[in-house]
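SEQUENCE-TO-STRUCTURE ENTRY
===========================
What this section holds: a protein sequence and its matching fold, both as plain text.
Question of interest: how does this chain fold, as expressed in backbone structure tokens?
***
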Amino acid sequence: MTDKLSWIAVYPEIILLLMACLITLMDLGVKSRQRTRTYLWTLLTLGVVALLQFMYASGGGTLYSLHNMVVSDPMGNWLKFFATIAVMVTLVYGRPYAADRDMLRGGELFSLSMLALLGMFIMISGNNFLLIYLGLELLTLSSYALVALRRDNATATEAAMKYFVLGALASGFLLYGLSMIYGATGSLDVNAVFRSINSGRVNPQVLVFGTVFVVAGLAFKLGVVPFHMWIPDVYQGAPTAVTLMIGGAPKLAAFAIVIRLLVEGMLPLAVDWQQMLMLLAIASLLVGNLAAIMQTNLKRMLAFSTISQMGFVLLGLMSGVINGNIYSAANAYSSAMFYVVTYVLTTLASFGVILLLAREGFESEEIADFAGLNQRSPLYAAIMAICLFSLAGIPPLVGFYAKLSVLQALVASGQTLHIGLAVFAVIMSLIGAFYYLRVVKVMYFDEPITATTVAAPFDVRAVLSVNGLLVLVLGLVPGGLMTLCAHAIQQMLGT
């Protein structure tokens, strides 16, 4: 492979890094409170990167580069495309909110968001333990700074400290686990690790210990029980625009590193890590749904909802290898990918409405703040209701098909345990429907606490409307996205 070809795989990352540095320097001369020039340059950069990723993903080829440290395949390119769009949408929703709270005194919101996205790209494309860890640290360090962006806000500072301490602990878990895998196999290359484990000439005790630590580190990044302690506090304490930045696109990157490390690197150990994922999924569905019922703060409720939603993703990931056979792997992993993508889409719209209702000096994050929203703004109430119904898994919205695809993957395995897990997941979804429908009831049947009309800039209104419409349309015609996920996963497994 020529050097020229080698660099093609990382063109989007190079563009993103150079423009993040350039925009940071350009912002020094911007005086506008809204940071309009910085905002437009950031969106333009992300648009170009998204177009490039779309072209790579549509091409369908798999390319290894930089001495096998980077892989550019359809699964990674589609996830990077969706992550870029998610960050663009987050910045569109978050800019008016950030401007009202004096978070745009510098261009840090934009430059840190671009660096966080670069970290996601490296995580998604990493084919080497060190590179994956480097991407993870770039994402988390940028996220810590974003959470603490309101320096004069005690709640945000406290959330950043909690996130930092627990994030450092989780990174240590993951790094220790990866070092044990390296010690056992003698390689940091994901493909070489797979071949070494598959050969059967590796100390199994060291491998299993390493796998336990790796799964614990990944579980923190996904925010599943019992590594979920940071999620409610950070979601509630961080500025809402930053909450969306943490709760949206990074979930796609977290899914990617689970696939890269556990599936591409440690598939022969599936019997071990699938059991761990199963326990994490059961605990997440139980704790997430039961804890969410008791919340009065909408951001905190959505945090516990996230924990239960990630439990569903784990159910998809743990049903890929049955009795040593991988015949159902493509179906299982593509259902998990479909779930993550649709979850991020729905999360963007739901937090978009929360950001829209927030005014200067008023956060609008309590469930009671949504009372009578339908009387104040039928459009935004409808978008929020669509998102909540989708998260609850009510047809014909996309969340229903996401849950159905994961349940179908479980049942298709034919295992009694998996069928039992599918029944348990359905029961947990019924419990979860209560707290989603409670918010809909408040929006449509309670008296409004204020007569203030909901005003928003044109770009926010347009993007939010398209976002809400996609949740509905993808529920009516989910086949295209499902096929895209299936082809991407099949090609990943094929290489």
Q: What stands out?
A: The chain has one domain: 3-494. The mean pLDDT is 87. Residues 218 and 258 are 7 Å apart (CA to CA).
